[in-house]
Amino acid sequence: MTTILWADDEIDLLRPYIIFLQEKGYEVVTANNGSDAIDLCREQQFDIVFLDENMPGLSGLETLTEIKIAQPALPVVMITKSEEENIMDMAIGEKIADYLIKPVNPNQILLTLKKHIHQREIVQEHTDTGYRQEFSDISYMIDTATTLDEWMAIHRTLVRWDLELQSTDSGMKEMLAMQRTQANKAFSKFIVKNYPQWFHDPQQRPLLSPDIFKTKLFPLLDNGDKLFFVVIDNFRYDQWKVIQPLLSEFFTVTEDRMFCSILPTATQYARNSIFSGLMPLQIQEMFPDYWVEEEDEEGKNLKEKELIQTQLDRFRKRYQYTYNKINESDYCEKVIQKMKGFQSPLNVVVINFIDMLSHSRTESKMMRELASDEAAYRSLTLSWFQHSPTLRLFRRIAELGYKLVLTTDHGTVRVENPVLIIGDKNTNTNLRYKVGKSLSCKSKDVFTMENPKQFGLPAPNVSSSYVYCTGSDFFGYPNNFNYYAQYYRDTFQHGGISMEEMLVPLITMEPKK
After folding, report:
1. DSSP H/E element including 164
2. For residues 94 and 69, is the Cβ–Cβ distance under 8 A?
3. Count of CB atoms within 10 A of residue 412's CB?
């Protein structure tokens, strides 16, 4: 039962209101002065306080201060005869939840209670009803999708409902999780069927990783725009949607779209493809010094700046550019400090925090607790973005008048189902895809590339193949299979086929004047 404290020196005159509320199922405790109201707040818990601003003895504002000390989170609604602005300013400064001007009527009181006490239940009920009504439409979209644009629309819709349902205790979240599983199974079948055709007929393929510079950045640069191109590693579309409100203070979003990451959805392949404008096999053949094989121990993305230059040269673009890779907050601060001296029309920044977050979550029990599911993972991303120098970096980009293109190389997916695979000792260690000789996997839910070169991928050996997990599966070896299955279950991984990994944000923003 909701318990209300109503403090007013004329409380006897409010008896009809109190009876009205009691008939509606509320418990109402009364006080006719500020001191008694404060004592009551120290002795018991209330859900809301209605507080008269003009009482003898302790004023409403003085009473408010003491109530907030006793119960800081308790919503207090100030009721006043006065409409003086300074009184309202002081009350709002003391963090009142709301205020009402006398004479109040019962409907105002009920609306206030709905707003501050029952809002969560009303929102949950409304959200549940909305998702329940749209459930069949989404299922139909999943069953009938035949193009990548349709799958992007499905992904956007599921992300929207995921964000709306995340703060509720609704059983609808379980329904949404099942629907996403259904969607990812169907999406994986779509990719298995259509991905080979995209490489047989490149003119008909959708926007992929190697197309970003050519189709998105070069037209802006040719138009004379000053540009920042920011690539956040492992950045999912739902993570973009939670940080978007922070960036809306400085930027206007002019285009919110997605593109499809190439396979494997791993940094070595997808990000090198973006910067070079080439498929990995082409990088290996045209610039062997810039390509690092899977089995090599050196860093796989140490030549990104050089790969950008090769693409500029190939398209005869004479634009000067800067390149910065941010792995820690100290270097982000240095980039912010030197940005005023940037003279190049193109400025590329790679931010690796979310990649580090996903790895640390796998390796740290504490981080697993902090990011136990997608909603918590998004919350950690938002907290980092809000409190690290990264937000100041974006603010500075806007202050200097640069247009911003924000994207990623690939996303991540939370894995749940271990799949047994057998390979030789040179097989790579990624949990979502394997490349090697004599790979053997009994699961029917994998995508195998027997001839990697047809898909623009290097083959370490003549008999090498690539095998990809789909949905929420992940690979494990026979040795200690159960241990590693338990260790990696519910971690965020990348490299395979899912909407979260492949359908990633590509956002264009204009700085606000």
Report:
1. helix 148-165
2. no
3. 28
